[in-house]
Amino acid sequence: MEFKEKVWAECVKIPAGKVISYGEIARKLGVSARAVGQAMKLSPGISGGVPCHRVIRSDGGIGGFNRGVKEKIKLLRREGIEIKGGMINAKYFIE
């Protein structure tokens, strides 16, 4: 399995209504958060079965998205995640 596929496999584990940070995925895989971000840029997205919109910054910030941040916010809100001032409350993080 290629590295990017390992990252995507971690994303698939994130349930709707929850988020995880780039850093947490990086810790699980023993790589840098930047490497995770680069793999996410290549993701096939939701249509490809990878809910990459559920990966955010460790400080609760939205982070990037290959279809634009506004679309990422729309998808997260559709799943019931509250976003205030561009930030997501820690209660939505996977424990």
Explain the overall architecture.
The chain is mostly helical and 95 residues long. The protein has a single domain, classed as Winged helix-like DNA-binding domain superfamily/Winged helix DNA-binding domain (Arc Repressor Mutant, subunit A, Orthogonal Bundle). Helix content is 39%, strand content 8%. The chain has helices at residues 3-12, 22-29, 33-41, 69-78; strands spanning 20-21, 55-56, 83-84, 87-88. A hairpin with a 2-residue loop joins strand 3 and strand 4. The termini are far apart.
In sequence order, what are the helices and strands, one letter per element?
HEHHEHEE
Return the average pLDDT rounded to an integer.
93
Give a quick account of the main beta sheet: strands, pairing sense, barrel closure: 2 strands, parallel
* Physical arrangement of strands within the biggest beta sheet: 1-2
CATH topology: Arc Repressor Mutant, subunit A
Please report the first level of CATH classification, the CATH class: Mainly Alpha
What value does the Rg take, in angstroms? 12 Å
Domain unit count: 1
Question: What's the overall geometry?
Answer: globular
Distance between the termini: 26 Å
Low-confidence stretches: none
Q: Given the structure, what is the number of helices?
A: 4
Structural class: mainly alpha
